[in-house]
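--- STAGE predict ---
source: upstream dedup step, 1 unique chain passed
mode: sequence only
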Amino acid sequence: MSRNNPEQLRRILETVRTIALVGASDKSSRPSHEVMAYLQGRGYRVIPVNPRLAGKTVLGETVWPDLASVTTPVDMADLFLAPDRTDPVIDDAIKQQIPVIWMQLGVINAEGALRAEEAGITVVMDKCPKQEIPRLGIPPVTQTATSPREGR
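--- STAGE serialize ---
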């Protein structure tokens, strides 16, 4: 299935429960902070990842320095990074076997996406879940539903 297909986006947003938001900010004016709050409000657990804020708390969640340090299984890595900073995060997501890598608006890394897809990871690029959820009519999620990480 082609990347960014509406049905693929729907399936992702209806099945993921735990999201690692890479590039999280503690500043409420930043888009990553706004998207994190929105996703939490929709029922997702969002784990902030940012080496500069590691150990602090953002929106009630402890910030981790990198994906490899996160101790909770993650269904999706949401990347709020400049495209030239995504390769090491994509490689970490592959190593951690995170089922979905979602790159935010303006974040495009075709080579990294291909590498992830070859490793069996679903990739979304240049999209924002905060825009896609209402556009696709995705209802709030519940944490009791089956997660893609279960059974791994």
